[in-house]
Amino acid sequence: DSHLKLHLTIESVARHVYLSSTQFTRSFREHTGQSFHEYLTAQRLKKAAQLLRKTNITVQDVCLYVGIKPNQLRNLFQEKYGYTPKEFRRRHL
User: Fold this and answer.
1) Counts for the chain of helices (H) and strands (E), in that order
2) What does the DSSP assignment read for 20-78?
3) What is the rounded CA–CA span in Å between residue 74 and residue 93?
């Protein structure tokens, strides 16, 4: 969670914990109930929402901080919350 802004892949994380990609993928799903990608996206979105509620940093900087491209963040926010990141911030300040 502390490395959200990095380009994280199954291969790089698996290598970091000394597992094959297959072993890591299987173990990750068993322990979290989610795929690595689902978990990573959810954590990034959660952190972005927190930053939008509690800070004044720009949406662009939020994107950099959580490792999501601006158009992707916009789509994810609209999908989950029904608002763009800017609208989300306005509603939650």
Assistant:
1) 6, 0
2) -HHHHHHHHHHHHSS-HHHHHHHHHHHHHHHHHHH----HHHHHHHHT--HHHHHHHHH
3) 18
**In contact, 36 and 25? CB cutoff 8 Å:** yes
Per-residue pLDDT of 36-73, as tens digits, reads 999 999 999 999 999 999 999 999 999 999 999 999 99
- To the question of pTM greater than 0.85 for the whole model, the response is yes
Tokens of 33: 């109930």
- Residue 14, both tokens: 């698996």
Taking a C-beta distance cutoff of 8 angstroms, is the pair 83, 74 a contact?
A: no
- One-letter identity of residue 42: A
